[in-house]
Structures are given as C-alpha cells and as structure tokens.
C-alpha cells in the first residue's frame, strides 16, 4: 500500500525529441486529444505510483493588466504515466507561452490512491477535462472534496483521502517559469539543469529554462 503523502514539484528540463507529447486539451465541457506544443506554458502531472490518481487543479491566472482568468482541470492519471494541461491553449494563446509578468496560483486536490473499481466507466487511459466555466469548475471541485478552503493539507471524506496543495509561479523572460513558493508540499523539490534536485528557495524564485512545470503527484 502506498502511504507517503506530499507533492513534489519540479521545473521540467527534459527535451523530448523524435516524437510528440500529447495532452487532452478540451474546450469547455468537452475533450479532444491535441499535440502539446514545445513553447506552450503547461503543467505535467506525473503519477509514479501503482494506482490511479484523481486530481482537480484550479488555476488562477493573473494577467499583466491585473485581470484574472480561472481554469479548472479534472485529471484521471494512470499508474506510471503523465497527464498534461496545456495552459496556453486554454488561455487562447495556442503554442505561445503566457506573457512575461503573468502570475499563476495553482491549487490541486488529489486522491492519491484510487481503487480501480472507482475509476469512472469508460476511462481506460489518462483523461483531462478542462473548463473556464466557474459553474462547471465548482462541480469538479465538489465531486472530489466537500471543502475547498480547508487549512489542513489532508481532507478525509467518506470515500477518499484528498491531499491539498498550493503552488505559485510566475512567467519570466522568454516564457520561462519561476517557481515562487509552495505551501503544504513537504516533498517539494526543483530539478536543476544538471539533473540534481534542490529544495525550493525561500528567499527568491527558482527559474526554469523551459515553460513547462512538472508536478509529481503524492503517493
């Protein structure tokens, strides 16, 4: 049984060559399978465990003019696989990164060990459903947890245990991601270009060379 709880967050520095990385990038209330552009701002949710994981991710994107766009994504992630959310496409930017100066607050609600019997009928592969509709986003959140404001990083429901994490990052020059801090993430590490890991800085942002953020889901 997987017992470790927490969230590992890494700035992805791996270049994928010779093939395409795919993400489910739906329009509001629908789903489609689309190639994930290299230049797009995206978040990869990685499941290194041996059971399915269910995640609802709530993105608050503050534009440089101060306006805020909310995006919600519901993810079912197979064991030993990764599901991607293409934020650029959902924000209407296609393969362009979010503009420099954009700030993103990401809150994730994760059921770390989903029994196969609880995986929805018809879901046999990674599935990502995203929406910018607050009503639909609220339905996604209420389906996974009764509390979306709990201070405790672990919420126990009659059906599941839900791990809650907050992550903040900014977009810097060239679309690069600067991880500006996390809360309730005891396993938070940032991957350096040399392949080593270091604790996320508490005195300043850690900047990646790519516009892709990698989140290793809790066990």
Write up this protein:
The chain contains two helices and 16 strands. The protein is globular and about 45 Å long. It is mainly beta. The chain has helices at residues 87-90, 134-144, and strands at 8-11, 22-24, 33-35, 42-47, 52-62, 68-77, 81-86, 103-114, 127-131, 154-156, 161-171, 177-183, 189-191, 197-199, 206-207, 212-216. The strands form four sheets. Strands 5, 6, 8, 9, 10, 11, 12 and 15 form an eight-stranded antiparallel β-sheet that branches. A four-stranded mixed β-sheet has the order 1-16-4-7. A hairpin with a 5-residue loop joins strand 5 and strand 6 (68-77).
Terminal-residue CA separation: 9 Å
Structural class: mainly beta
Main β-sheet: number of strands, strand sense, barrel status?
Answer: 8 strands, antiparallel
User: Into which percentage range does the β-strand content fall?
Assistant: 35-45%
- By DSSP, the count of extended strands is 16
Radius of gyration: 16 Å
Overall average residue pLDDT: 73
Give the count of helical stretches: 2
Element string (H = helix, E = strand): EEEEEEEHEEHEEEEEEE
Overall form: globular
Share of residues in helices: under 10%
State the low-pLDDT regions, or none.
Answer: 1-5, 9-34, 182-203
Features:
four-stranded mixed sheet, single chain, eight-stranded antiparallel sheet, 2 helices
Question: In summary, what is this structure?
Answer:
The chain is mainly β and 219 residues long. The protein contains two helices and 16 strands.
């Amino acid at each position: 049984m997987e017992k470790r709880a927490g969230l590992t967050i890494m700035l992805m520095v791996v270049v994928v060559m010779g093939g395409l990385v795919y993400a489910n990038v739906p329009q509001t209330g629908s789903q489609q399978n689309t190639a994930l552009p290299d230049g797009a701002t995206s978040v990869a949710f990685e499941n290194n465990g041996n059971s399915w994981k269910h995640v609802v991710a709530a993105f608050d994107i503050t534009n440089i003019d101060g306006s805020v766009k909310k995006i919600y994504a519901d993810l079912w992630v197979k064991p030993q696989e990764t599901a991607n959310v293409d934020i650029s496409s959902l924000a209407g930017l296609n393969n362009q990164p979010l503009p420099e100066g954009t700030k993103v607050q990401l809150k994730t609600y994760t059921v770390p060990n989903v029994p196969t019997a609880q995986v929805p009928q018809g879901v046999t592969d990674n599935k990502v459903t995203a929406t910018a509709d607050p009503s639909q986003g609220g339905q996604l959140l209420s389906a996974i947890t009764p509390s979306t404001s709990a201070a405790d990083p672990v919420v126990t429901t009659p059906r599941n245990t839900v791990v809650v994490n907050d992550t903040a990052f900014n977009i810097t020059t060239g679309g690069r991601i600067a991880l500006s801090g996390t809360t309730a993430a005891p396993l938070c590490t940032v991957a350096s270009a040399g392949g080593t890991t270091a604790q996320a800085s508490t005195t300043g942002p850690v900047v990646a060379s790519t516009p892709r953020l990698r989140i290793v889901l809790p066990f």
